Amino acid sequence: MDTNNIEQKLAEMGLQFPQLHPSKGIYKRCLTVDKFLFVSGHVSVGADGHFITGKIGINLSEEEGKAAAQQCALSILASVKNHLGSFDKLKRVIKILGWVNCSPDYEKHALIVNGCSGLFVKLLGEENGIGVRSAVGMGSLPGNVAIEVEALFELHD
């Protein structure tokens, strides 16, 4: 798999990495352990750096939620590139965990997190872009962001 095409594919889709905000917590965005890359939760940030806020089922539609989840994927990729220097070592998605800020009665969390998973599939293909996944609803998220996603990747030796 040629992961060097990730940036080219994003450009063809009209997508760009968002501006990453400085961390307000005590953690690393990315941590490599052996051949695994652990990526901390990344919140929904627009291409211009603004936080995408709100609750699905109250003041955000499902389409807006999916778009916010896609922005989480782009933020994750920006951190991965900053950490590794390029996408050359990126092999596959192992796991994604997505938290959806939503109304108490909202039930389609998986549909929203598909915004993130779908982008990874477009960029890495079905074999390497689909890993295991959890998608859960939350009563609130930091700063009232719409979505937060963390990821685990396998790296090439």
Written account of the structure:
The protein is of the alpha+beta class and 157 residues long. Helix content is 33%, strand content 25%. The chain has helices at 5-12, 62-84, 109-129; strands at 30-33, 36-43, 90-101, 132-138, 147-155. It has a five-stranded mixed beta sheet with strand order 1-2-5-3-4. Helix 3 links the parallel strand 3 (90-101) and strand 4 (132-138).
Strand order of the largest sheet: 1-2-5-3-4
Helicity, as a percent range: 25-40%
- What is the overall shape? globular
For the terminal residues, how far apart are their CA atoms? 14 Å
Number of helices: 3
- Indicate the structural class: alpha+beta
| Number of beta strands | 5
Tell me the strand percentage band. 25-35%
Largest sheet: 5 strands, mixed
- How would you describe the oligomerization state of the chains in this entry? single chain
Low-confidence stretches: none
* Radius of gyration over C-alpha positions, nearest whole angstrom: 15 Å
Order of helices and strands: HEEHEHEE
Write the layout of secondary structure elements.
Blueprint: H1 5-12, E1 30-33, E2 36-43, H2 62-84, E3 90-101, H3 109-129, E4 132-138, E5 147-155
Helix pairs in contact: 2-3
Question: Which structural traits does this protein have?
Answer:
5-stranded mixed β-sheet, 157 residues, 5 strands, alpha+beta, globular
Quick overview:
The protein has 157 residues and is an alpha+beta fold.
